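Q: Structure for this?
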Amino acid sequence: MASSILVSAPIEAKRPGWLSRMPWTGRVGFALLMVFAFAALFGPMLTPDAYLQSLADALQGPSSRHWLGTDQLGRDLLARIVAGSRISLMIGLSATVFGVVIGGVIGSLSGYFGGLFDTIMTRFMDTLIVFPGILIALMVVTVAGEGLTNVIIAVGLRAVPVFARLVHNSTLAIREREYIVAARAAGASGARIIWTHIRPALMNSIVVLAALEVAHSILVAATLSFLGVGISPETAEWGAMLNSGRTYIFRQGQLVIYPGLAIMLAVLSINLFADGLRTVIDPRRSKGAHIS
Amino acid sequence: MARREWTWTSALALAGFTALIAGAQPASAQNIKVLLTSEFPTLDPSETGGELPMVLYHIYCRLYSFNDKMEAVSDLVASETVSEDQKTWTLKLRPNAKFHDGTPVDAEAIKFNIDRVLAQKGSARILFQPITDVKVLAPDTVALMTKEPYPALRNNLASPNAGLVSPKAVTALGDRFGVQPVSCGPYSFASWTRGTSIQTSRFDGFYGPKAPYAQISFQFVPDVSTRMFLMQRKEADVALRFGPQEAKELQAAKVKVNEINGRTILYQLNYKLAPTNDLRVRQAINYAVDKEAIIKNVLLGSGTPSKSVIASDTFGGRPSGYYEYNPEKAKALLKEAGVTSAKLKLYATQNRYYNDGLVGQAIAGYLRAVGLDTEVILMGDWAGYVDRIGKGDFSLYTLSWGSSTGDPDRIVQALFHSSRAGQTWNFGSFIDKNIDKLIEEGAATVETSKRLAIYGEIQDKLFADAPWLFMYRTTGYMALSDKITTIHTLEGPEFPYLFDLPK
């Protein structure tokens, strides 16, 4: 994971656009991601009601009325996949923001000030990070109960130590630099130094890691609902759809193939995009990474 | 020298091998493997749960047993005399019955058993509760006294939970009895490998006809695909609890599949909360849901719509009517009741009954279609589910019942008697003094025709009051290998007996 020190010059406006500096894989990822984003924003307006059941039309194959067919309760599969993209992207983004904010605060404070707080926090984060993410999420949902908010917190909590560690390690290295020492000598407060002098230097690596974490969070959220915890199984969520279609895998493959494909493509597109983003932000490092 | 030795050995090996082949057929046909879905904490008969009854049938003997028609008939009892006032049952026992540890099954043992269960809190207690006193009249004669006439006593004593324990073993083993049970059934307990299997072997001292298989091994295989695979590979002989799709696949693979009537699935409605405390709303809910479409599409045909609170194969069970699918009528009833916006909470189990979660969602869809905003809460953990229902904030919740005694008394007592209001399994707080009276009368009436009339009245009254969203009776499937020659599946319980039942 990109937890080492990563400081590069800010991107200059005069250079060619960041999208054109991205490798083609990154651009493909970006294009796919835009499709999902469009579906999430406008899809539910264009497709039939994802929750309208009609048992007479249950388990149908593709038709002009239902492009991808229907599920066990006769609900339109395409509409549910599209509605699912809104939920998945929302969970992915919110959970990552949660992780960045909490992890960033913990990491920068402990990294900058050090001392007992640092020791305790570092040990605590180390403990959290050795747990598989899904285990933490499961634990939180079991204790806190069902609901979308709880799922976002549960998935976000898993991302906290990831960001805390990155920010902590980078802060440790930066705080000894001359310009930080100068700022301190000029009488700037700790909070001000962190916000105005350290944060900008960390932004690039946080953005890359955050993009990857969005993909990871979508996957963890889908796993949670596949296991039947968290979001109500009625919700048009990809993992929940996979779970309820599981027993029909041999007869009505579309019930698992489409949600599965949606999860895979969403995660793939974000990963490709994140990878491309890294190349744009730090070409030197990513080239090195390719060689090794 | 070496050569001669070699010849000797190979001749011996060959002879041994031939013997093995010759002997293998009957020997393996005598040892059978039964696949259950889950383990249970104890084999003590006073507990219930999951597929425990199937194991209890084979290890424990009982005073009465069910015959193929699910009628309670004498088993350990050689003859019975019921007193004029119907309150004293004098039972003469078979002379040759022995427990697996060799001690005799005598009047003292019967008294010990009944006293033991009545002193406990287990699920079996309700079966023996009508008995007020037990008297030993002679070594082979015992008298059971009841406070009121109680004709269902035979059925209660034939329940798998009324299995008899060896007093000697209970005294010697104490709490460990449940994991090393000693009784007097056709098979004796041999060993229990936790999490894997329970071994039993034929008890040669059994008083009844000789059991057909030398050994029965009950194995716990929770995963349905694994159970299917083992049946297809012919590595098991009886496997329970398949869904309709698996049944089809097994049949396609030339495995024999038996259909059995399963449990009655229902949704209990809450009499304590609006709007389900209004009769018209309860009826509207029944009219709003298309039971047949759910059976066809969600259960894939494995069920039949319920037409009464008592299933037709339980004593007295008969159809009372049917709320056909009629959303217009449902809307009209809701309008009449003045329900314009209502929020309902529907609780359903997840993976306890076949496709239960989906059925819950389908019902919610139908209720929304007639204007009842329904929230669906699905729970996979049974203990947590019961706990949640007990809080009483539901509008409707799913539940199932199956009759292990073939008699309706226990069922209507538990589900509708006002003394159970707000508790298991009358969480819906159904309270009706007339029904209470009828239930008590039904329990104490001896004459069959009168009893039938009482249960008929109970069913009609309950049906009209719509205490449930009436759903369906499930159809279950079990797979059998060619080795299974003796098997009896009764109408009520979902589990088969692997030995011959009394006539």
